[in-house]
């Protein structure tokens, strides 16, 4: 199990490796992560990775292209609609204000 915390909502839950974060936030809207396209094109769901970058699977090309448009470092900011947990550990994500 990995502990995941969403900020600024403060919602925390335990998830298993391989879990898609969008599935977690769909099931728990109290995590308060905003989405629009849900497919790595709009950047609405950008989250700062405050802890646990190493526990996330690496971004694929379509995610990297969106992050580049926003000038984000993929080691610091990810698209929540694309993130999957790689292994166990603590992850803290903060929603990036538009
Ligand atoms: S919801 Fe559009 S990039 Fe994630």
Folded structure, characterized:
The protein is of the alpha+beta class and 98 residues long. The chain has a five-stranded mixed beta sheet with strand order 2-1-5-3-4. It is globular and about 35 Å long. It is built from two helices and five strands. The longest helix is centred in the middle third of the chain and has 9 residues, at 61-69. The model has no long low-confidence stretch (mean pLDDT 97). The chain has a single domain (2-95), classed as Beta-grasp domain (Ubiquitin-like (UB roll), Roll). The structure holds FE2/S2 (inorganic) cluster. The site of FE2/S2 (inorganic) cluster (FES) has 13 residues, from loops.
Characteristics of this structure?
98 residues, alpha+beta, Ubiquitin-like (UB roll), 5-stranded mixed β-sheet, 2 helices, binds FE2/S2 (inorganic) cluster
CATH topology type: Ubiquitin-like (UB roll)
Q: How many domains would you count in the coordinates? A: 1
**Unreliable segments (pLDDT under 50, ≥5 consecutive)?**
none
What is the makeup of the main sheet? 5 strands, mixed
Shape: globular
* Spatial gap, N to C terminus: 31 Å
Structural class estimated from helices and strands: alpha+beta
Strand arrangement, major sheet: 2-1-5-3-4
State the helical fraction. 10-25%
SSE map:
Elements: E1 2-7, E2 12-15, H1 21-27, E3 46-51, H2 61-69, E4 77-79, E5 90-95
Parallel strand pairs: 1-5
Antiparallel strand pairs: 1-2, 3-4, 3-5
The chain binds FE2/S2 (inorganic) cluster.
FE2/S2 (inorganic) cluster is lined by residues 35-38, 40-45, 66, 79, 81.
